[in-house]
């Protein structure tokens, strides 16, 4: 029951507000000649989703109170008819009415007014001027209603919305100046309250402007400039106490009004009734809740720069920079500790001495001929043991054939010596293998700690720079987006680095994918922008769209593959990964051999490389770590690795090759060859990959292949001739044609797994 009472009370209050608004605008005029504003307010309210079944009847009632004539009633009915009929037709058809259609119906609604004006001898030109002014007023009202009723009191008004609000205030003042009850001025009641609100919640400039606008509205309606001076003086008095309590602003307003009325005698008459509007508006202003004043301040305060918020952001970046730097030092220290934990292996000579002593202790210590062998023939015996240990290390074991005849003639423990040497060398090899695995694991951990340290150092340097927010561009973005009917409730613009500008806007969900959004932001920022992230805002119905400076270059690519004839799966694996910083990673991993084993090797290699690059590790650390991890498998996991990282921002292509075929950069004028180098990954402990930087530009093609493609041609010249003869500019067609010709060169057979990546470089 309470809900229904509140609901009905709301409708009553809404009807009263509309009645007063329409009545004032019916009285608002230009030189008391044309009255164009009431119908514009009616159409604007309906556009702003106010109930037409309340607004339309109230409009007719207000018009009847203003001018109770049959002719005027017909004009109002035609106006309402041209609004309601299209409105309900669009509802029934479930079609959204566009703004230009709404404007057209508003113009048609004034047909009866124009006809009666012409028949009554009124100037047709003035009638057309009245319609134009009414439509412009409607658009101004729509702009303000969209800002306040749709966005709410959460974001500041744009310049266009402020101008539209001023035009509404001027029109209301033009209507109120004619509505007095005896000496009680509704215009003074309205303007004193408006000036108090602007003075407390807005800037001094806007307060002075609204004072002048109020006087201008009264002047346009009556040709009487009487209110210009009082309104400006009110504004000055209010602004003197802007930083104080609200009560001081009210006292200043009342005192200056008394001074104007009694001392300067600017009014024809002045008494208690004349000052009563000031007292009423002042009392209402003082009683306004602080929260409401704060919300209004957000709407009106154009100079508000969110300095506190931006300082907090920079302060947090400073703290994060310091913490990341400290963490980087911690991980670097841990890296050094792990490297110092590596166990140094013994030299070959040290091992021989150790094993010789072990053999003597185990075999010769109980032999009756010990003194004879190790004293009389000491050098000869030691040399024989050294040779046997060396042979055992080289061949894996020693036999009777490896023992010299002079030892077998005098030693009865030869079999025991052979068994002991073979056992000891096998144990030593196993031990050293275990030590090497432990050391390799420690090196892997140390490399990762070093990589993490470098990443954190990089992040720390990125956080070190103070963000300079561009408030001027933020305000301009809000204005421009509003002009293009894109509702934006917030915008932030700053430069991340020398190359990159970041713009973040909060717009309605339906506006987040509009092409015009990027165009407007690009125009304001003076750079081509591109969307790199869109996610839901904390405010329902809105999305956060993050844009950044578009890179100088862009890439599209094509990939073609064919499995070796007779194999179920391909031993080639490729990867295309988007990295941070406008970089793209292209990679081909060719597992040694073909089939499932090769496929498993290449898949493992490419996955490790891909994940490390995504994490932001350096090339050297990535390849070294992947190599060690593959070595720990104790299986023959070898892969030829071909990597190309293209930086779209500066046009640099980094090639890293480990036993991969040559790559090519071609355009209409030249062909550059990127040579191959290094052994496959996973073979040696310390890989030395070939690393090469190349400058690329728009219209370049980057071609990467596995050896199944390159080996299909008899020579490099034949392969280059094949590439140059292809005329298509589509990278996928380019890759497909190279693959077809490679297969054709082998009489239609794929003698090895074949993979090719063709990257086309374009303007960003």
Walk me through what this model shows.
The chain is of the alpha+beta class and 764 residues long. The protein has five domains: 1-152; 181-303, no CATH class; 348-437, no CATH class; 471-549; 553-763, PPM-type phosphatase domain (Phosphatase 2c, domain 1). Helices cover 59% and strands 14% of the residues. The chain is built from 27 helices and 16 strands. The strands form four sheets. A five-stranded antiparallel beta sheet has the order 7-16-15-12-13. A five-stranded antiparallel beta sheet has the order 8-9-10-11-14, with helices on one face. Strands 3-4-6-5 form a four-stranded antiparallel beta sheet. A hairpin with a 3-residue loop joins strand 8 and strand 9. The longest helix has 51 residues, at 414-464. The two termini are 63 Å apart. Mean pLDDT is 81; it is low at 1-5.
When the domains are counted, the total is 5
Determine the fraction of residues in helical runs and give it as a percent range: 55-70%
Low-confidence parts lasting 5 or more residues at pLDDT below 50?
1-5
How far do the termini sit from each other? 63 Å
CATH fold-level label of the largest domain: Phosphatase 2c, domain 1
CATH superfamily of the largest domain: PPM-type phosphatase domain
Question: What is the CA-atom radius of gyration, in angstroms?
Answer: 43 Å
Individual helix count? 27
How much of the sequence lies in strands comes to 5-15%
User: What would the principal axes of the Cα set say about the shape?
Assistant: elongated
Overall pLDDT confidence: 81
Q: What is the number of strand segments?
A: 16
CATH architecture of the largest domain: 4-Layer Sandwich
Q: Biggest β-sheet: count, sense, barrel?
A: 5 strands, antiparallel
By secondary-structure content and strand pairing, the structural class works out as: alpha+beta
CATH classification, class level of the largest domain: Alpha Beta
Strand order of the largest sheet: 7-16-15-12-13
């Amino acid at each position: 029951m309470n809900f229904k009472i509140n609901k009905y009370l709301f409708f009553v209050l809404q009807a009263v507000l509309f009645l007063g608004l329409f009545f004032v605008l019916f009285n608002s005029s230009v030189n008391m000649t044309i009255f164009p504003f009431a119908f514009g307010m009616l159409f604007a309210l309906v556009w702003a989703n106010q109930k037409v079944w309340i607004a339309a009847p109230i409009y007719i009632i207000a018009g009847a109170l203003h001018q109770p004539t049959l002719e005027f009633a017909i004009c109002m009915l035609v106006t309402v008819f041209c609004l309601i009929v299209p409105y309900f037709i669009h509802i029934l058809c479930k079609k959204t009415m566009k703004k230009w259609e709404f404007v057209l119906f508003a113009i048609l609604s004034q047909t009866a007014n124009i006809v009666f004006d012409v028949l009554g001898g009124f100037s047709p030109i003035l009638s057309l001027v009245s319609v134009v002014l009414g439509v412009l007023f409607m658009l101004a009202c729509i702009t303000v209603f969209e800002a306040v009723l749709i966005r709410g009191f959460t974001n500041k008004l744009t310049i266009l919305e402020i101008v539209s609000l001023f035009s509404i205030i001027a029109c209301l003042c033009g209507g109120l100046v004619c509505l007095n009850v005896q000496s009680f001025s509704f215009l003074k009641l309205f303007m004193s309250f408006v000036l108090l609100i602007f003075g407390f919640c807005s800037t001094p400039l806007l307060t002075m402007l609204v004072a002048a606008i109020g006087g201008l509205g009264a002047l346009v309606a009556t040709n009487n400039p009487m209110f210009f001076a009082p309104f400006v003086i009110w504004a000055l008095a209010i602004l003197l106490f802007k930083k104080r309590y609200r009560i001081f602003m009210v006292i200043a307003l009342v005192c200056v009004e008394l001074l104007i009325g009694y001392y300067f005698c600017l009014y024809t008459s002045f008494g208690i009734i004349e000052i009563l509007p000031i007292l009423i508006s002042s009392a209402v202003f003082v009683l306004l809740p602080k929260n409401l004043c704060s919300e209004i301040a957000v709407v009106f305060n154009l100079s508000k720069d969110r300095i506190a918020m931006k300082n907090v952001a920079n302060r947090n970046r400073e703290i994060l920079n310091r913490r990341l730097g400290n963490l980087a030092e911690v991980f670097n220290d841990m890296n050094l500790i792990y490297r110092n934990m590596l166990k140094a292996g013994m030299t070959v000579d040290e091992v021989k001495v150790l094993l010789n002593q072990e053999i003597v202790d185990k075999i010769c210590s109980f032999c009756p001929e010990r003194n004879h062998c190790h004293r009389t023939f000491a050098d000869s015996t030691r040399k024989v043991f050294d040779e046997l240990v060396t042979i055992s290390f080289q061949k894996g074991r020693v036999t009777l054939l490896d023992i010299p005849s002079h030892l077998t003639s005098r030693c009865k423990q030869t079999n025991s010596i052979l068994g002991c040497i073979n056992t000891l060398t096998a144990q030593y090899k196993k031990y050293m293998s275990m030590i090497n695995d432990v050391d390799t694991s420690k090196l892997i951990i140390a490399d990762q700690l070093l990589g993490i340290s470098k990443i954190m150092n990089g992040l720390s340097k990125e956080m070190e720079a103070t963000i300079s927010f561009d408030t001027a561009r933020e305000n301009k973005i809000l204005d421009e987006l509003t002009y293009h009917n894109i509702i934006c409730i917030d915008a932030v613009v700053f430069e991340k680095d020398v190359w990159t500008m970041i713009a973040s806007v909060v717009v309605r969900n339906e506006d987040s994918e509009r092409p015009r959004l990027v165009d407007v932001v690009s125009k304001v920022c003076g750079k081509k922008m591109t969307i790199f992230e869109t996610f839901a805002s904390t405010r329902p119905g809105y999305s956060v769209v993050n844009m950044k400076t578009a890179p100088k270059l862009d890439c599209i690519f094509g990939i073609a593959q064919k499995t070796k004839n007779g194999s179920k799966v391909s031993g080639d694996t490729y990867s295309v990964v988007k990295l941070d910083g406008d970089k793209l990673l292209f990679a081909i991993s060719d597992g040694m051999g073909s089939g499932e084993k090769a496929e498993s090797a290449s898949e493992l290699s490419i996955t490790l490389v891909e994940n490390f690059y995504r994490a932001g590790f350096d090339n050297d650390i990535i390849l070294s770590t992947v190599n060690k991890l593959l070595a720990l498998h104790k299986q023959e996991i070898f892969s030829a690795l071909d990597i190309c990282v293209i930086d779209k921002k500066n046009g640099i292509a980094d090639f890293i090759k480990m036993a991969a075929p040559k790559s090519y950069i071609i355009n209409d004028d030249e062909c550059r060859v990127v040579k191959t180098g290094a052994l496959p990954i996973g073979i040696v402990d310390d890989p030395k990959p070939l690393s090469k930087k190349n400058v690329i530009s728009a219209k370049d093609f980057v071609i990467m292949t596995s050896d199944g493609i390159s080996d299909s041609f008899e020579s490099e010249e034949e392969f280059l001739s094949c590439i140059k003869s292809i005329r298509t500019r589509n990278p996928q067609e380019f890759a497909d044609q190279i693959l077809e010709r490679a297969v054709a060169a082998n009489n239609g057979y794929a003698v090895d797994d074949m993979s090719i990546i063709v990257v086309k470089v374009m303007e960003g």
